[in-house]
Model the fold of this input.
Amino acid sequence: MIILTEKLYDYDAYLKEFTAQVISCTPCEKGYKIILDKTAFFPEEGGQYSDTGTLGGCEVFDVQFENGELIHYCREAVSGVVAGQIDFDKRFRNMQNHTGEHIISGLVHSLFGGENVGFHLGQDEVTCDYDIELNAQQLREIEFKANKAIYKNLSVRGYYPKTEELKEIKYRSKKEIDEAIRIVEIDGIDCCACCAPHVKSTGEIGVIKIISYMRLRGGCRLFIACGLDAFMDYSLKHNEIKAISALLASKPEECSSGVQKISDSLKKTAREVNFLKGKILENAVKELKPCNNGMLIFTNELDMTALRNIVNLAKDKSPCLCGAFSGNDENGYSYIIYSEDFDANEKSKDINEKLSGRGGGKNNMIQGSVKANRQAIENYFSFSSSFSINSSLVDL
Done:
């Protein structure tokens, strides 16, 4: 495989401007595909998106490896010798995050034996995937030691070792590499095969923050932010905490306990309201007249216990079928239905199929939820011909 373009970023990640000879400029659906004899533009590779910038004053909006060639995508055609300029703010942001990922991955490997099996450096988030699960305590240790590595301002070195030298180097790699291997080494922290630009020393990262994590395919995925990304994340959340603190009239460090108190109070109030609504409905149910054709009762925001109480009170007035539905047309309805006449298992299956529901039951009672609106529920139970409508309890 012959690559015509010399990769200047391999030797100087801080190179912002350069001149190059245009080897080819070919029209395409996106605009023009341009090949240069050398470039400072890093393509989409190694889990991160490409550099952007300009060539001869024309926008470079994407850079890709295609069939062994490094392709610059431009809106306009260029020719001859051109001046290239990369968006260095984006480049440096990527350098901070990618070097930060190396530190975290090196620590995951050395502390817990985990391997990095995936990395994505997008414009909106940065994720790292590992083949082991990590708990909160382990992640705190990793994050703490990662930031200690930053404060030590360790050297970060990217280089192509000779074949014999490479045999003596213990390095991480996510895949088999069939071309010259470039090593990125961080003193005492990590040694990894990587093609991307990195900062010269860990101090340039500034700070590393593990934002969140999740289990993934027997391992875990970390969401991280480094450098300016971490600062922006902190600033946003700091402002939010200040706003919440003001609303709670509490200190920022006491916001969680303040929110917990409000949450507990709201839950208690909701239980009390639900209990009182249930009692009101129970009294209303007692006033209903017996109905031989079946009875459905609709109401808003009752829990299953209250619904069950209503059905137990009303079922003697309509033993052939008595159902209580709580909810609304937008979000759907929870229900409990009693009948002396149906097979609970078969009826719940039919309701699930016809009314987009979930649920089940046994004996003479079923319960669950449906996504259907009220009209569809009434139509399903054939109200127009077989059932009487009890509408006095709707929207209580």
About this structure: Residues 255-286 form the longest helix (32 residues). Residues 383-396 have pLDDT under 50 and may be disordered. Residues 247 and 255 are 10 Å apart (CA to CA).
